[in-house]
């Protein structure tokens, strides 16, 4: 895969182009994230990027289990009076500092994060995944294009890599799953052991959207086989919680 830190910056740049062009009415428009406006979504992204900086500085940013969503809602509610201009400047300052800050971490570093400590590269991947998913929450209700890119490979890797953890968290019996996914450019991406008894095949974009809980597996073009294929799609997540 291409460098995750470069791709994270590129994802920020793609979203920045969208945010720069928003009108005041669009900032206050309901997003696809239930209960949040577009401004609320950007505020959440800003706060989570500031948490990355805090983690890099050595602070504990773990939240714990089921409290994550409640904490995120409370943080957004506490700072909703921020103007779009100030919010955009604050998001840019936090987001565009993240790639270099994570890249500069010494080999073997584990950084505090919401549920478990993560390597800088894995934390960068979760940031890419979250910004990509929330970009959908912003653009879809506004009818703004947000094309899928080859950067989805990082997100698909994360979803597959965390399947054992996802099975465990959901209390679902799991096993090895091989994924063969078609990239936005038509290439085939392979994750896992080809001899695994269970497989998932189909568009990488659908795989990532199912993992981000933006698309139901039954409504996707993904196909699952074997004893654990369907269970993998049921627990799939593109985030390390």
TrEMBL record:
Q: Which residues cross the membrane?
A: none
Q: Does the keyword Repeat apply?
A: no
Q: What is this protein called?
A: Maleylpyruvate isomerase family mycothiol-dependent enzyme
What organism is this sequence from? Nonomuraea guangzhouensis
Q: Does the keyword Isomerase apply?
A: yes
Tell me a Gene Ontology molecular-function term this record carries.
isomerase activity
**UniProtKB keywords:** Isomerase
Query: Which region is the signal sequence?
Result: none
Q: What InterPro entries does the database record attribute to this sequence?
A: Maleyloyr_isom, MDMPI_metal-binding
User: Where in the numbering of this chain does the Mycothiol-dependent maleylpyruvate isomerase metal-binding domain appear?
Assistant: 9-138
Q: Which domain of life is it from?
A: Bacteria
Q: Which Pfam families match?
A: MDMPI_N
């Amino acid at each position: 895969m291409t460098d995750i830190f470069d791709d994270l910056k590129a994802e920020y740049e793609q979203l920045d182009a969208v945010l720069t062009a928003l009108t005041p009415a669009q900032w206050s428009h309901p997003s696809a994230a239930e209960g949040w406006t577009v401004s609320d979504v950007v505020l959440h992204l800003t706060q989570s990027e500031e948490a990355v900086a805090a983690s890099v500085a050595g602070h504990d940013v773990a939240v714990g289990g089921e409290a994550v969503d409640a904490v995120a809602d409370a943080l957004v509610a506490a700072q909703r009076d921020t103007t779009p201009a100030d919010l955009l400047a604050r998001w840019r300052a936090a987001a565009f500092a993240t790639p270099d800050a994570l890249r500069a971490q010494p080999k073997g570093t584990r950084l505090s994060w919401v549920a478990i400590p993560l390597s800088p590269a894995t934390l960068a991947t979760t940031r890419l995944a979250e910004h990509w998913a929330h970009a959908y929450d912003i653009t879809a209700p506004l009818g703004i294009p947000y094309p899928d890119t080859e950067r989805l490979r990082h997100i698909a890797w994360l979803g597959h890599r965390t399947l054992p953890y996802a099975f465990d968290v959901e209390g679902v019996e799991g096993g090895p799953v091989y994924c063969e996914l078609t990239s936005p450019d038509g290439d085939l991406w392979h994750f896992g052991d080809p001899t695994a008894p269970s497989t998932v095949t189909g568009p990488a974009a659908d795989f990532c959207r199912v993992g981000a809980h933006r698309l139901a597996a039954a409504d996707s073009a993904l196909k699952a086989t074997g004893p654990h294929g369907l269970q993998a799609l049921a627990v799939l997540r593109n985030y390390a919680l």
